[in-house]
Amino acid sequence: MRSRALQTASRRAALPRPSTSPPIRLASNLSQRPHSDNVSFPGALKSAFSNKLAFQHPQEWTALPTYRVVDQHGAVVDPTWTPDIPEEKIVKLYTDMLYISILDIIMFDAQRQGRVSFYMVSAGEEAASVGTSSVLEMEDTLFCQYREQGVFRERGFTTKQFMSQLFANKNDPGKGRQMPVHYGSTELNIHTISSTLGTQLPHAAGHAYAQKMRKLQNPESKSAVTAAFFGEGAASTGDFHAALNIAATRSCPIIFICRNNGFAISTPTLDQYRGDGIASRGIGYGIDTIRVDGNDIWAAREAVKRARELALEDGGKPVLIEAMTYRVSHHSTSDDSFAYRARVEVEDWKRRDNPLTRLRKWMEANGMWDDVKEKDARDVMRKEILKGISESEKEKRPPLKAMFDDTYEELTPDLKEQMRKLREIIEKYPDEYDVSEYEGGLESLKEKK
Ligand SMILES: Cc1ncc(C[n+]2csc(CCOP(=O)(O)OP(=O)(O)O)c2C)c(N)n1
Ligand SMILES: [K+]
């Protein structure tokens, strides 16, 4: 073994030797040097010195452009673009968008009828979810917020799966422990939705970091990215900033997809942030960024396709997409948005620009769709959804015991005690609790010896 002194000496020898002392320059000589010399402060290596006292005023900067392929009338505005998929796949995208818009209308009414406790529609934002999802691979892991039913549908979530979660029956993989619309799917590689805004973003960044490390360990494995969806309101959480920064500094293969729909419940964007939207945040963190027209499914697809390539370049890097759209719906079934915005504004958006109408107009112009096809598709989906509701409502609820499961491998003494108390209460007030609704009735709460 070499001595420590020897090691230090050889390391020193490997360092570049300082050149001979530079000639002393006169002050006059220095002032003639161009002031564009880069600074050498470690925190800003690309900055040039300037002798001008000039603050940057972001409001004077030109806003980032919004990329689109097809305008609100369904006319192609990018002459270099041609569709990259055959007709049947285009029809599938359109019918996925149509499906969630019908699902939303029916489920909103079902909540009003007292059949489900809560619902959130995604009206006006169908292209931002279906379009982005359609160019991601099944190996890519997705983290959603709660308005991306289009992502679930596009990846193959079935009517039965939607309904089992919404009605919290025994087929719900979450075993009825979440609010309605908080879907998740192991087969579809989509993490379960969390109500707490922004928490999916650091999870997603961490997941992308793990993907990167796994790829380093096993270079032959298939490359995959993480995609994280969120609203511009969620972008005000600390978690958003933590996620962008860690993804940027660790160079993680992740696509951040923001649906900027103008409102976070009752908070309009003007009160949500200053500066140029969420896209400018991406740039601030040194992340490749684009703003797209979220009502244009083709723009959403092109942007995510390219983003996926970028995210996998050089071993991984983050990308941010801000999809501009408008929340046509109320925030949820617990909200009346006409308390904070004019009805006429919403009606105007519906008439002026809608992602479904946009794609439909384009398809009609290309001979792929007509009124008859529209009516038939609507009828079939409506029937399928109504059938799904009535079947799911009849199913039993998950076992009562499920509420204690899956946190600890074995129930802790305090959980056992809670379970015993629950059983006691139900036995004491049998008229108040109909346990026959639950798989296994009261039996599931009895401790196995
Ligand atoms: C940490 C946290 N703060 C506040 C809320 C309450 N909340 C639920 S949804 C929402 C608005 C979120 O808006 P945005 O992220 O833009 O998504 P959108 O609803 O417009 O799709 C708020 C404030 C929450 N769920 N979690
Ligand atoms: K929003």
Automatic annotation (TrEMBL):
Keywords: Metal-binding, Mitochondrion, Oxidoreductase, Potassium, Thiamine pyrophosphate, Transit peptide. GO terms for cellular component: mitochondrial matrix. GO terms for biological process: branched-chain amino acid catabolic process. Gene3D superfamilies: 3.40.50.970. Its cofactor is thiamine diphosphate. It is an enzyme of class 1 (oxidoreductase). Its main location: mitochondrion. One of its GO terms (molecular function) is branched-chain 2-oxo acid dehydrogenase activity. Pfam families: E1_dh. It catalyses: N(6)-[(R)-lipoyl]-L-lysyl-[protein] + 3-methyl-2-oxobutanoate + H(+) = N(6)-[(R)-S(8)-2-methylpropanoyldihydrolipoyl]-L-lysyl-[protein] + CO2. Residues 1-10 have a biased composition (Polar residues). It is found in: Mitochondrion matrix. Belongs to the BCKDHA family. PANTHER family: 2-OXOISOVALERATE DEHYDROGENASE SUBUNIT ALPHA, MITOCHONDRIAL. The branched-chain alpha-keto dehydrogenase complex catalyzes the overall conversion of alpha-keto acids to acyl-CoA and CO(2). It contains multiple copies of three enzymatic components: branched-chain alpha-keto acid decarboxylase (E1), lipoamide acyltransferase (E2) and lipoamide dehydrogenase (E3). This is 2-oxoisovalerate dehydrogenase subunit alpha. It comes from Emericellopsis atlantica.
